[in-house]
Model the fold of this input.
Amino acid sequence: MSSSPFFLGVDGGGTGCRARVEDADGQVLGQGLAGPAATRLGIEKTWAAILAASESALKEAGLGQESLEHIRVGVALAGLGRKGALEALSDCPHDFAKVVFVNDGMGACLGAHSGQDGAIVIAGTGSVGIGIVGTTELRVGGYGFPISDEGSGASLGLNTVRAALRAHDGREDKTPLLTEVMKKFAHDPMEIVRWMDRASATDYAVFAPAVLRHAEQGDPAARQIVQAAAGEIDTLVRALLAQGAPKVSLLGGLASPLEPWLAHDVRIRLKPADGDAVSGAILLARRASET
Done:
């Protein structure tokens, strides 16, 4: 068994690291989990998480140290574009046959379309559009909150807090959503200012579920905010299609709740993802075995 080729895919992000090992026929042999793996946490911690998830998957697959020289690894990793990150990770010691890296978004795109041409729009805490057309890699948006990441959970939250302040001032009508938001800050705008000084994109995104819930209930302010977010996702999808992507998959925590709000011309061009970022990483490992 140990002399057969095996392929290990790893998806490393800020909340955790997932790994999966498959044989040459695509049969899943084992899976593993570990802590966060993103270059902003440091190369040493990132590599340790990658190895921990990999070891867990290999243990479940019954593959020991003697098998490592027959295993090719693909890693889809958050923050790979940071200066020097790829070079530092490539220098990390290991006993695998080969380890190749790609950023997590591209890994998700590879997985979503089984390595074929296509694109994804990720709508979660942040947002970004990524695509592959031939040898060309596409990117739309995703430059970071608050200057970018339109249509994301963070953007939904920011627009909600803005609207709540406007309603508090009497610049627009109060609604159940906006009243609920102000209540969280004891109806004191200066409490929002104090919170804002240290709030992250994740903190703003906490408001997204309430906005979506109130929008479904007909709250006019919530509906306007959600419609605006959906419009931003529409533009990401259309931009990718205009650049030659033949199909687009919508991914992320806001994908399902936002999809019904998207324009008809966008919805009909969406396709379900074939696989996830781990699938993309395994595909990367398989391709590495051909070179």
Q: What stands out?
A: Residues 153-267 form a domain with the Nucleotidyltransferase; domain 5 fold (CATH 3.30.420.40). Residues 74 and 100 are 5 Å apart (CA to CA).
